[in-house]
Structure formats: structure tokens, C-alpha cells
Specification:
Oligomer: single chain
CATH architecture of the largest domain: 3-Layer(aba) Sandwich
Shape: globular
Order of helices and strands: HEEHEHEHHEHEHEEHEHEHHE
Keywords: Metal-binding
Family: Belongs to the GTP cyclohydrolase I type 2/NIF3 family.
CATH class of the largest domain: Alpha Beta
Pfam families: DUF34_NIF3
Distance between the termini: 66 Å
Largest sheet: 6 strands, mixed
Radius of gyration: 21 Å
Protein name: GTP cyclohydrolase 1 type 2 homolog
Number of strands: 11
Strand order of the largest sheet: 5-6-8-9-10-7
Helix content: 25-40%
Structural class: alpha/beta
GO cellular component, one term: cytoplasm
Length: 304
């Protein structure tokens, strides 16, 4: 029977921990390495509700994208929800493994899965990671993806394509920029991405798809893009390309875009475990909306 140690070894071959950002601590969070693994559940966030559903389904292992212990903690007692989740997992013999920024950067990981679903071709990482083992297999590792659409389309049509392939959330998808402008090249960074505007601008893409865009960084980025487009229209070469505004912005719900990874993980993980151990565990996805917002109200404008 496949042990948790064997399953973890497979997970950390597919999504190497060395790919993780310095501040990140992915990997095995809860579990007995000698315990058997026969059923794996996948979910974006290890919330209490998700953990309860994994236990109810008889999962031996819960694989999540987001960490349970994102920031430093000093206790996992019954005085807090994290301690309660750890207790629930141990009492029900369910391990928890997290693939966070390491899964973001991996082949067929979070970034590639999203870019593939949006229809991008000729892809490369936005922020490459040098990895000889990946290169030997013909793969590229790194955060985010940069690619192009098979043909140009209006920005609004592309933003609607993004919204259509994402799981439903009440937050929805926001677009920023000229809706009729034709776009073809796209950068995608699932998760919080306003720290990488410089890298996106250097890539020269038409659109940037990410999450958690804050007011000031997003405003600064689109205003700079509009300014450069005006200057190029006047024959003053600032930036590169023609007089279009770029990059335009698409802001997505954080967990929704990252959960596209499970389209690949549900296939890749059981297959790799079977190749390593001769036994294929059952695998299923918990399609629970873990976005924190459950109501969006458009202001009426009465306060103008």
C-alpha cells in the first residue's frame, strides 16, 4: 500500500520545494509518514469546511494550494481555528500537503494551467527559474506565464473568456483599459500579482491577468500605460510598440484562478504515484467556493 512518505516524494518531484519563494513554507503540514494513502482530495484552501468535506469523503490526504499556516504561528491549540483544523486532520487520519509557490512555478503547475485554459500558446515563464532537470525534460520552470493568443481579439472578449473558464465566485472578474482594443499577447500570474508590474512591462504584453490588484498600484500601472501610449502616438518613443495602451489589466478572484491547477493535478498526481508504487490512489476535487466574499453590491450612485 502506498504510504504518505511515498506520496509526498511524488508530490515534491512534480512540484519541487526548491521552486518556492524564500518566504514560503510549502510541503507536508500534517500527517504520519507511515500512514497509507488510498484517496486524495484536492482543494484550493484548507478551510474548516474543506477539511470537514475531505474527512467526510474518506480522504487520507488533502492537497491544497494555499497554506494552513501562512504566517508564523506559535500555537495550534484549541484556542484557534488552525489548531482545530490540525486536530480534525489528525483525529481522522487525513494528512495535509501544500503546493504553494512551488506549484505556481512547476511544469503543469498553477501558472501553466491558467494560461492553457485561457488559450495561450508559445508560452514561457514570466520569471524563469534555472533548473537543469526541468530543462533536460524539455520543460521551463518559473513564476507566471507569458504567451499569445492564436489570433488577436478585442480586450473585452478576452476578459469575458477569462471569466467563463473560472469557477463561479460572487466577486467576479474586473477589467481595466480600452475594451475595444485588440489584444494578442498576455502575461498570467495566478494569485497576488501587483508586485510584478515591472516584469510584466518588460515583457511588453498587451494584457496582464492576475489577482488582488490594489487601487494604487493598478491606477499607477494603467495611467503609465495611457501616458506612454499618448507619447508614442505623438512620435515620442517611450516604452515599445505602437500607440496602444498596454498592459491592460484583468483582475480575477484569487482562489478561483489558482484552482485551475487541479485540472492537471488530478491527472498527474495519481498517475505519478502509480508509476512510483504500482498502486493508483483515488483522486477527487472538492469544488467548494472558498473565496471570502459572498455578496457583491454595485453602488447605486445616489451619493454623487
Amino acid at each position: 500500500m502506498t504510504t504518505l512518505k511515498q506520496a509526498v516524494d511524488v508530490l515534491e518531484t512534480l512540484y519541487p520545494l526548491r521552486y518556492a519563494e524564500e518566504w514560503d513554507e510549502p510541503g507536508l503540514i500534517v500527517g504520519d509518514l507511515a500512514a497509507p494513502v488510498t484517496r486524495i482530495a484536492f482543494a484550493a484552501d484548507p478551510t474548516a469546511a474543506v477539511v470537514g468535506e475531505a474527512v467526510a469523503r474518506g480522504a487520507d490526504l488533502l492537497v491544497c494550494h494555499h497554506p494552513l499556516l501562512f504566517r508564523s504561528v506559535h500555537q495550534v491549540s484549541g484556542a484557534g481555528v488552525r489548531g482545530d483544523i490540525v486536530r480534525t486532520l489528525y483525529r481522522n487520519d487525513c494528512a495535509l500537503w501544500v503546493g504553494h509557490t512551488n506549484a505556481d512555478a512547476a511544469y503543469r503547475g498553477v501558472g501553466q494551467a491558467a494560461a492553457d485554459r485561457f488559450g495561450l500558446i508559445d508560452q514561457h515563464p514570466l520569471v524563469p527559474i534555472r533548473d537543469e532537470s526541468a530543462a533536460a525534460a524539455g520543460h521551463e520552470a518559473g513564476l507566471g506565464r507569458v504567451g499569445r493568443l492564436p489570433g488577436a481579439m478585442p480586450f473585452e472578449a478576452f476578459a469575458r473568456r477569462v471569466a467563463e473558464v473560472l469557477p463561479h465566485t460572487e466577486l467576479g472578474v474586473q477589467a481595466c483599459g480600452p475594451l475595444g482594443q485588440m489584444v494578442e499577447t498576455v502575461a498570467v500570474l495566478p494569485g497576488s500579482g501587483d508586485s510584478l508590474f515591472d516584469e510584466v512591462r518588460a515583457a511588453g504584453v498587451d494584457v496582464y491577468v492576475t489577482s488582488d490588484l490594489r487601487h494604487h498600484p493598478a491606477t499607477d500601472a494603467i495611467e503609465q500605460a495611457r501616458y506612454e501610449a499618448r507619447m508614442r502616438a505623438d512620435g515620442i518613443m517611450i516604452g515599445s510598440g505602437d500607440a496602444r495602451v498596454r498592459p491592460l489589466l484583468v483582475n480575477t478572484p484569487h482562489s478561483a484562478i489558482e484552482s485551475l491547477w487541479f485540472d492537471y493535478a488530478l491527472e498527474d498526481v495519481p498517475r505519478a504515484i502509480e508509476a512510483a508504487t504500482g498502486e493508483r490512489p483515488a483522486a477527487e476535487r472538492i469544488r467548494m467556493n472558498t473565496d471570502p466574499w459572498n455578496l457583491t453590491i454595485a453602488p447605486s450612485g445616489a451619493g454623487r
